[in-house]
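Aim 2, interim progress. The first record below pairs a target sequence with its structure tokens.
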Amino acid sequence: MLVIGKNPVLETLKSNPDSFNKIILLKKIKPDNKLKSIVETAGRHKINVVYLNYMDFKKFFDNKSKDEGVDQGVIGFIKDYEYVSLREMVEKNKKIKNPLILVLDSITDPHNLGAIARSAVCLGADGIVIPRHNSAEVNHTVLKTSSGAVNYIAIAKETNISNTLIFLKNNGYWIAGTDLNSSKTIFECDLNIPLALIIGSEGSGIRKNLLEKCDIKIRIPMAGKIDSLNASVSAGVFLYEIFRQKNS
């Protein structure tokens, strides 16, 4: 798998240097401090660093993403991302008071997945669950968008999200989801509890069969003429309110 861009490569070097096979850098006359740090860190871990001119460097990008991160001049080649099992995640979270797991329902845009992962790490979530089908997976775009944050949070890939919610309920989690018709807003509900928060897709929101399993249905209050937010922004608002409640 590729890691593209200075921040994602540097963060992955810090968190998981053994995952690297090699790093390729674009030849530059004056490399900046981050590129210097990448070279120094790679050297300490005996990771092969190769320098290429622009045309040879650009050949590593496919048609879909050939311009994404080319100007940053760094590509890392790492092992494929290792997902955890839901059971492992729940077991590990037993050591945490009022753990928080994000359950992503049909988030297909890797930029949204990356942005959600970044907010989740910054605001103290304890795991992310994604569907095995009809979902973005952790790839170079997710790594880049998250600035390497996916290296700091466990992600599980589950075949049946409905069964996932049942399993979480049986392990003491309350299930929360967004419902535009709910009378309660996120500011009127106690979210400082063991919580599994469902984030639905931008187009259709949370699927009906999953919404029916929610113990808590809440909405984000809106002031304008548009009644919904981008999925990653919505996740950020929820995460910050949960963080605020836990630290107030």
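The second target in this work package is listed in the same format:
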Amino acid sequence: MLNTRVERLVLGMLAIIFAGMLGYVLIEKVNWFDALYMTAITLATVGFQEVWELSGWGRLWTIVIMFSGIGIFFLIVGHIAQQAVDFKRYRRFRMAKRVKRLNEHFILCGFGRMGQAIARELKEAGKSFVIIEKEPEKIDMLVEEEFAYVEGDATQDEVLLEAGIERATTLIGVLRADQDNLFLTISARSLKSDLYILTRASIPESIPKMKRAGADNVINPYDAAGVKLARQAMVPGVVDFVELILNRRNLDLTLETIIISNGSETVGKSIIDLEIRKNFNIIITAVEQGNGEANFNPDPHYKFMANDKLIALGITENLERFVQHCEVD
């Protein structure tokens, strides 16, 4: 049974063609091939010369065919447009369901050159993330890359909620303008107080404003690039080694930030007590205490406290085991 609009439209076009041929055969007494040709050039409106001299009734029949063809043509165009709208709506529906399944994820706002580099790094690290973008050409890139995304203005509360900000752990703001990143920070902080917010500032004057607005960290990409180039020039071997550690594509060794939960069995124990090197085969390179005091190369006898932030070096599997050990069962 023909149950789709496409099939009905195709059937309607075939019916018009057959009716046009039959009308010419009966009215003009011509053969079927000439009738088909006349019907085709009438429907196509190409303006070729008539095969024979049309009678008055023949001209009237040509007008009927012409308007019938135009009508069915507009129906087809309308259907194609409707299908495009329906497909876009269906794609957004499926993407919304995909985003709703995310939990403890990253929200990346902006898919420019920096956003694309961040997205590739997050994907390489196996992190769950969603991208917020409003420019159509960037949306096409996101679809091609099969990234989870939300289409809209990242500074709007409803868009951030659609991206699951209440379930996210980190927001990265790399929008084009500093004022947009500032508004984004204000909106995100008002929606979730414990969200870690990392944003970009193109000019140094924007950094204190963003921090006052609630950003945990603000990075000027030009300053960061300049510092990296200077260090690469002064101590290239050290920089290359750090890059080797951080680049997961080259080595399954990484630095990880681990927060000790209140009530975990790690609280009150030292590196020696836990036998971290023996049991987990990782290295604790630094400890940041709850009061902000940083302790690099910590004393093996230092007793870990709740909310201590550890910087640990090791392979991913071992770090994940230690993270579980630092959480509350």
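The chain has a mean pLDDT of 84. This observation will shape the mutagenesis plan for the next reporting period.
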